[in-house]
């Protein structure tokens, strides 16, 4: 896969996507969103990929936001289409990916950058990270899922404060309110992400995919997450991973999951 704005590195079962627009602080433009969609789709369809890490190039930013120059003169209709297409192509797509995605937030994660990090299955951050949704300072609101995912992660009151003040929080504040799971130095950020990925990769990729679906369904209108859990739990009994996992447990050995 050849891309203009992103880099992909594959090491065994782990893939790392790096958004590579350092001169623009890795801002998300139309082309970058399309490339990210294509990369995530290809990696998710590759059975040898068990975990995906996404990060930004350079030391300053994960993603500093959307590329405002692309939509500053949009009409009402164009703005609506921008949000709808972006959510479907990237943000909702990542959230519902069957392959686990870890966001390694290095530096600024603002606007669309924070929305991208929040669409990942969980987040870790460097101690110099700054996060926020500054859209209302531009006369607009978060349009890539920020008004929905931020309250899910930090609670309604904290989300309202962050969105209405257009303020930034540091890594410690982000961890305190549940926005990120771990904080480390910039130098140790990717090694920590890889360590967490290695723990994930020891387990059944089939079961993890089912768990992602069940957890996500709890947050979807009109969907009963408990029913999804029951269904996915039952489906696991028909998998080769279940047979291997239970056999290995009874044999008192480590499982070797086939991923099927």
Quick gist of this model?
The chain is α/β, with parallel strands linked by helices and 260 residues long. It is built from 10 helices and 10 strands. Helix content is 46%, strand content 17%.
Do you know the CATH topology of the largest domain?
Answer: 2-enoyl-CoA Hydratase, Chain A, domain 1
In CATH, the architecture of the largest domain is Alpha-Beta Complex
Instruction: Count structural domains.
Output: 2
* Rg estimate, integer Å: 19 Å
Number of helices: 10
Distance N terminus to C terminus? 26 Å
CATH superfamily of the largest domain: 2-enoyl-CoA Hydratase, Chain A, domain 1
Structural commentary:
The structure is a single chain. By secondary structure, this protein is of the alpha/beta class. The chain has 2 domains: 6-201, 2-enoyl-CoA Hydratase, Chain A, domain 1, CATH 3.90.226.10; 205-251. 46% of the residues lie in helices and 17% in strands. It contains 10 helices and 10 strands. The chain has helices spanning 30-45, 76-95, 112-119, 146-154, 156-165, 171-176, 189-201, 205-217, 225-236, 240-251, and strands at 6-11, 14-19, 51-56, 61-63, 101-105, 108-110, 122-126, 130-132, 168-170, 182-184. The chain has a 6-stranded mixed beta sheet with strand order 1-2-3-5-7-10, with helices on both faces. A 4-stranded mixed beta sheet has the order 4-6-8-9. Strand 1 and strand 2 form a beta hairpin. It starts with 5 loop residues before the first strand and ends in a 9-residue tail after the last helix. The mean pLDDT is 96.
């Amino acid at each position: 896969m050849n891309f203009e704005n992103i880099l992909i590195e594959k090491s065994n079962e782990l893939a790392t996507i790096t958004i590579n627009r350092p001169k623009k602080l890795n801002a998300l433009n139309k082309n970058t969103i399309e490339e990210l969609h294509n990369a995530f789709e290809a990696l998710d369809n590759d059975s040898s990929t068990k975990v995906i890490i996404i990060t930004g190039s350079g030391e300053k930013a994960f993603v500093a936001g959307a590329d405002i120059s692309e939509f500053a003169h949009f009409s009402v209709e164009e703005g609506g289409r921008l949000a709808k297409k972006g959510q479907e192509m990237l943000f909702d797509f990542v959230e519902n990916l069957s392959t686990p995605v870890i966001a390694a937030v290095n530096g600024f994660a603002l606007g669309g950058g924070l929305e991208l990090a929040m669409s990942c299955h969980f987040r870790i951050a460097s101690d110099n990270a700054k996060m926020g949704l500054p859209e209302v300072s531009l006369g607009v609101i978060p349009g890539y899922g920020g008004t929905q995912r931020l309250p899910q992660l930090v609670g309604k009151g904290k989300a309202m404060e962050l969105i209405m003040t257009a303020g930034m929080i540091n890594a410690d504040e982000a961890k305190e309110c549940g926005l990120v799971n771990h904080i480390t130095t910039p130098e140790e950020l990717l090694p920590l992400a890889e360590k967490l990925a290695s723990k994930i990769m020891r387990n059944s990729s089939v079961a993890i995919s089912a768990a992602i679906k069940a957890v996500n369904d709890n947050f979807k209108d009109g969907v009963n997450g408990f029913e999804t859990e029951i269904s996915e739990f039952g489906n696991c009994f028909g998998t080769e991973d279940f047979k291997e996992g239970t056999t290995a447990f009874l044999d008192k050995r480590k499982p070797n999951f086939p991923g099927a």
